[in-house]
């Protein structure tokens, strides 16, 4: 599935804006067959939960309906017309007038439908989209729906961020020729400074005769050409895509002399794991940056270009070179921007919450097997596999994406974990053998108890010594952190990337004697971790949890959300930001001086 782009043969009509919006009990039995009988409107793209003042909307569990009437340009006559939804959290069903045209499970990847036979150029059509936010053991992420004593549905989920729902990304109508390109896959390899290879495969709607490709540099000059739906382009004196110094070629595919054309940005670079080093273009790379969330006030997980650019600017200012798309695929605009600006991405599926017992001891409830027929089962794994397929299909061509993370904090020390994950790792490698595969390991699974780490290429660790363990005692936390890190380094000849470490910090809370929640404690905590990292050569990256404070479900353990951000939710820096800026800027200067990424 190609991301919609305009070209000589393709056009796009955005459908973003205000849509009529109704909850399922307001919409009637077959709401796609007539205009919704409500006056409420909801913005697209945006999560709907925080837009309105009605708690019944914020806490709604079930289906919500979006509807609008669209105009189809008369100039589109003779073209193939496609309706695309970039995301519907967590499942979407699309109707055009009275016809169901598409259905999709999974809240963070796109789906689309050919509606050519259902719309008339120069005419109008009614588009209705049903969005279902319910999570079960057959969804990724998983969850459970219960019914309380008042008959209200309640969603139980195990991820520590708010279950925002709706249409958080764009909806678009676009055209292609009837005979059109369907997909492009590129793999790049740099043999040496004198030559590089771009291997490509082009998918077509019919026989692939007449496919031609050419590669242009940033000045627009053609540097390589080829004929056929599969082949190789050889680039003399290539400019490589490098972290902090990106270079993007453009691959133009053409289907027939006057047929469909599509332009794909291409970054030539290689990724490799060698022992305990992570290499980009054959040079050691050290990750600095954050786990993030698509999260902001009012819009929830709704994509916003201004907010995105500001977040990237803050990462540049602080010296970060990377981020993880915790805990789901982000809007593709994020990856386009990372490609263009040289930021490295660990790309993650929405497989979070695959651990029933993470807080059992701390909260005092009984444990039960995570991987079992009545919990994470074959249906869960099937949904997980589909999430991996769709992630790689969407993001495979982005040079900024250097690693696939197929799960966050699963119960990897429990029986059944290996049987669950081994086929998923094999699937990931079968779909893309050019990038390392990882998962983010949670603290219950140590180097001597984890059952699956050997299946993966990179050890990614989420640890909270000094917060959830050794709370307030950084001396003990430092000893325990170093002991475990040395254990991982000795047990596995793999790079170690810290993908989560941090403390809740209330902006403006200061203390002469640093204690939990104060800004001083956040500084001391992170400096302690960095001392340990610097003593362990196997550590090849540090991504702090979190970039910015974010919203979570209501509860006594979270007051207005998670406060582990280096920035507040409205992107104001806490005191630790300048400490990090000093460290990461110095590290970047030292790497540049040594010739490393």
From TrEMBL:
Glycoside hydrolase family 2 catalytic domain residues: 271-587
The EC designation for this entry is 3.2.1.31
Any one GO molecular-function label of the UniProt entry = beta-glucuronidase activity
Pfam families recorded: Glyco_hydro_2 (PF00703), Glyco_hydro_2_C (PF02836), Glyco_hydro_2_N (PF02837)
Q: Where is the signal peptide?
A: none
Q: Keywords on this record?
A: Glycosidase, Hydrolase
Q: Which InterPro entries match?
A: Beta-gal/glucu_dom_sf, Galactose-bd-like_sf, GH, Glyco_hydro_2, Glyco_hydro_2_cat, Glyco_hydro_2_CS, Glyco_hydro_2_N, Ig-like_fold
Q: Which domain of life is it from?
A: Bacteria
Q: Where is the Glycoside hydrolase family 2 immunoglobulin-like beta-sandwich domain?
A: 183-269
Q: EC class of this enzyme?
A: hydrolase
Glycosyl hydrolases family 2 sugar binding domain boundaries: 12-177
Q: Which family does it belong to?
A: Belongs to the glycosyl hydrolase 2 family.
NCBIfam families noted in UniProt: PRK10150.1
Write down what this protein is called: Beta-glucuronidase
Organism source for this protein? Nocardiopsis sediminis
Higher taxonomy: Bacteria, Bacillati, Actinomycetota, Actinomycetes, Streptosporangiales
This protein's encoding gene: uidA
